[in-house]
Amino acid sequence: MSQRSGNTRRNIKPELKDKVRKRDDYTCRMCLKEVDELKDQLQVHHIRPVEMGGRDRFKNLISLCNICHRIVHKDVERYIVPMRKYVDLLNQTGQRHTIDSIEKGYYVDQKR
Ligand SMILES: [Zn+2]
Ligand SMILES: [Zn+2]
C-alpha cells in the first residue's frame, strides 16, 4: 500500500465509509436529512482535515450531504454547531471524543 500525503485527494475505504454512514444513521449530521432524501449524496467528511493531519479513522469521519459538505469547507462557524451535536451522538454510542480537541485543532491550524 502506498502512503501519499500532501494535497492529493485520498479515497476513504468503502467499508469504513459504510461504517460511518451506518453509525450516523444514514443521515447528514448537519441538516439531519436522511439518505433516502439525499439519494447517493451522503458523503463522508474528515472532521480534522487530511492536510492538517486528519486520518481516515472512524472517529475522524462524519456523514454530510453534499450541500452541508460544501458549507463546512467554507464556513467554520457554521461547522462547529453541528459538531457539538455530533460529539453528543458519539458519546451516546460509547465513543470518547471532545469538541474541544476538534475545535482547537481546527482553529489553531486554520490561523496560518
Ligand atoms: Zn446536510
Ligand atoms: Zn470534507
Describe the overall structure.
By secondary structure, the protein is mostly helical. It has one domain (about 15-105). It has 5 helices and 2 strands. Strands 1-2 form a two-stranded antiparallel sheet. Helix 4 runs antiparallel to helix 5 (about 100-110). The longest helix is centred in the last third of the chain and has 17 residues, at about 75-90. The chain is globular. It starts with 13 loop residues before the first helix and ends with a helix. Residues about 1-10 and about 105-110 have low confidence and may be disordered. One zinc ion (ZN) binds near residues 28, 30, 64 and 65.
Observed structural traits:
112 residues, mainly alpha, two-stranded antiparallel sheet, 5 helices, 7% strand, globular, disordered C terminus, binds zinc ion
